[in-house]
Write a structure and sequence with these properties.
The chain has one domain: NAD(P)-binding Rossmann-like Domain (Rossmann fold), CATH 3.40.50.720. Strand 1, helix 1 and strand 2 form a beta-alpha-beta unit. The protein has a 7-stranded parallel sheet, sandwiched between helices. The protein is an alpha/beta fold. The protein binds nicotinamide-adenine-dinucleotide. Nicotinamide-adenine-dinucleotide binds next to helix 1 and helix 7.
Amino acid sequence: MGRMTDKVALVTGGAEGIGATVGRMIVAEGGEALLCDVQIDKARALADELGENAAAFELDVRDLDQWYAAVKAAQERFGKLNVLCNVAGISEPGIVTDVDLDSWNRTIDINLNGPFYGCRAAIPAMEAAGEPGAIVNIGSMIAMRAAAFVAAYSASKAGLLGLTRSVALDLAERGLPIRANMVHPGAIRTPMYDRYKYSGVDTPENIETNFAATHPMNRIGEPEEVAKAVVFLASDEASFTTGCDFTVDGGGSIRS
Ligand SMILES: NC(=O)c1ccc[n+]([C@@H]2O[C@H](COP(=O)([O-])OP(=O)(O)OC[C@H]3O[C@@H](n4cnc5c(N)ncnc54)[C@H](O)[C@@H]3O)[C@@H](O)[C@H]2O)c1
């Protein structure tokens, strides 16, 4: 028996990076996963590779109606919904005095409104399942240790931290067996990281060295290291854990 046996999970950002790795691990641990993403071809290819316990669904997390359709698709395909993993996110540079307004709004829309819509659409379905459930939101080391060059990202992830705690309290106070937690990655080797590494702002070698140095463990993390934390919090092994900030950042958030 795997840690996700009998669990049906909806994973956003499931086409690549951390979300794809979470989807893979949920299925490897005996669960079923609906991989939701705007990159539907990549999500479908991964679902095909994972077999009958995975499926793909086209979802832009900025659209509440699409969220209701995604939750319905999980229920129709797998019979219920137990777990929501809000992984989809974007990171765009910009300090507060010159960040492009479209970039600010896009970042808040995807990184904060998206998980809010997800909780709104998924919680009734998780309640209807009548089983222990879990929400896992992906934050960032930056949620706890803001960075000047990503003003919108810092605000969106700190906002998501407040939302996660509010949801955790609401679920617990209503006596529901559904928990809400957050995983805060440091720099992780994914397409998002590679886009910055090869952006041309510096040599890829310097970017790697400088990013690694912001983590006391002095390296970049791997998506599997984040997915292991997500699966732990999504599983019944974390049955008395709600509202927590689980860092996977090589100590980055605690450095002075
Ligand atoms: N990689 C890192 O260094 C790092 C560090 C800290 C936090 N994070 C967070 O981890 C999460 C995943 O990051 P990643 O590195 O895997 O990113 P990634 O860019 O490699 O993958 C993100 C996925 O989200 C999808 N996505 C983007 N916008 C979407 C939308 N509107 N609707 C649905 N799907 C959408 C993309 O298509 C992509 O498949 C994000 O929330 C990110 O902020 C990443």
